[in-house]
Amino acid sequence: MRSLNLLVATAMSVCVLLLGINPSGAFAAEAVCHREIFNKISLKYVNLGANLSQLGPPTTGVTVTPDGDGCFQHYKYGSIYASWYTDAYEIHGAIRHKWAALGWERSLLGYPITDETPTPDRRGRFNHFEHGSIYWHPFLGAFEVHGAIRQRWADLGWEKGRLGYPISDEIPLPDGMRFTNFEGGYIYWYPSTGAVVVERKNVHIDANGVRHPDVPVYDVEFTLVSIRVLETSNECSSETYINLYANGRSENYIWKNTTDQDRSTTHDCEINQNVYKSVYARVSSVNNLKIGVDFYEKDGRGYDVGYHLAANYNEVLPPNIWKLGRQRVVNSSRCTTSGYCDQDYRLTYSINVYP
Asked: Which of 152, 154, 246, 312 is within CB 3.0–4.6 Å of 222 for a Cys-Cys bond?
C-alpha cells in the first residue's frame, strides 16, 4: 500500500512538472514562478517522498518569494525554498520558525543551502543558509549565527567544540561591537580585534549534554582613552608610568611624553595625549566594580630619581554600568588647602562588560 501511495504521489508531482499545476490542484502560472525554479521545488518534493514525506501535503502553490529571486511552496509541516542561485531545500520545525521570525529569505541569512540536518553530536539539528546558520538543541532552542563569529565557532569545532551550542542570536552593542552567547562562553567581535573567544569558567555538563555555568561570569574591559595634563608650576615630565586596575587586576604602561607643550600661554605644561590602554578583569557580579588609574611622573632633566605619584583616580561603579555610556570624562587634580590647583589631569575612559 505504501508503495502504491508513493507511486501516486510521484505521478502527481510529474503532473506538476508537465502540466504546470501544483499537487493541490490549483494552477501555477509560469509567470508567477519561472519554470526552472518551479522544477527545482517539484523535484525536491518528489525526492523527499511527496505527500508521504515529513513535509506532508502542500498548503500553497509554488509562489515567487517577496525578494523576487526565488520561489517557495509551503506544506503542512514545512517549506521548500529555491532561487536562481541556490538549489531547492526543505526547512521545517523550530528552525523554520526562527528563520521566519528573522524575515525568511530577506533576512540577513538569505536562502537555505542545506536541508535540516542532524548535528554531528546527534543532539541537535541545523540548516545552513547563504550567509549563516541556524542551530537547534531540544533544551536550548534555535538561534542564528553568522559572519566572523560563525567562522570562529566553526574553527573551534561547531557544537562539538568547547563552546557548545549557541544560546543567543548575534547581539549588537555600541561602537560596532557584536557578540553571541554559547553554552560554554561567548565570541565577541570588535572592528579593531576581530572575533575573540572568552570561555565561561565553572561549567558542568548535565545528563542531557547541556553545559551550565555554575557562576555567572562577566568580562570587564577598562580602557584609558586619553588624558589632558595642565600644570601651572612645573615643566612637563619626559615620561609617565601609568597603572590601570579593575577589581584586583592591573596593567602597567610607560608613556613617553612626545606631545608636551612646555610653557604654553596659560600653563607651564600642557599635554593632550590619546592613550588607548586597557586592563581586563573577570568578575561574577558587576556590583561594586572598582576601577582606577595612577600616574607616576619622571623628570627627564635629571632632577628626580625614579618616578613619583603625580595623580590618581578611582571609582566604584554603580550596578548598571551601561548607564555610564561608552566614554566618561573625569578630573583628578592636585590642590592645596586654599583651593589652588597646580596640576590637573583630565581622564577619558570607557567601560565594556561582556556577559
From this structure: 246
Q: Is 155 exposed, middle or buried (0-12, 13-18, 19+ CB in 10 A)?
A: exposed
Identify the architecture of domain 219-354 in CATH: Sandwich (2.60)
DSSP per-residue letters across 37-86 = HHHHHHHHHHHHTGGGSTT-SBSS--EE-TTSSEEEEEETTEEEEEESSS
Among left, alpha and beta (phi > 0; psi -120 to 50; other), residue 93 is left
Query: Are the C-beta atoms of 33 and 62 separated by less than 8 Å?
Result: yes
60-74 pLDDT, tens digit each: 999 999 999 999 999
Confidence at residue 39, expressed as pLDDT on a 0 to 100 scale: 97
Q: What residue segments make up the domains of the chain, in order of their start?
A: 1-87, 100-215, 219-354
CA–CA distance from 334 to each of 202, 312, 323, 346 (Å)?
44, 9, 29, 12
User: pLDDT tens-digit profile of 141-191?
Assistant: 999 999 999 999 999 999 999 899 999 999 998 778 899 999 888 899 988
Integer Cα distance of 72 and 93 in angstroms: 16
Residue among 128, 133, 214, 119 at smallest CA distance from 161:
119
**Tens digits of per-residue pLDDT, 231-272?**
665 666 667 778 887 877 787 877 666 544 444 445 567 777
Element housing 4 (H / E) = helix 2-19
Residue 329 CB-density burial (10 A; 0-12 exposed, 13-18 middle, 19+ buried): exposed
**DSSP state letter for 268:** S
| Under 8 Å between Cβ of 311 and 346 | no
Report whether pLDDT(35) > 90.
yes
Q: With CA atoms as reference, report the closest residue to 91 among 57, 125, 50, 138.
A: 125
Q: Rounded to 5, what percent of the chain is helix, strand, coil? A: 20, 45, 40
316 closest CA partner among 243, 245, 251: 245
Residue 14: which pLDDT band, with cuts at 50, 70 and 90?
A: very low
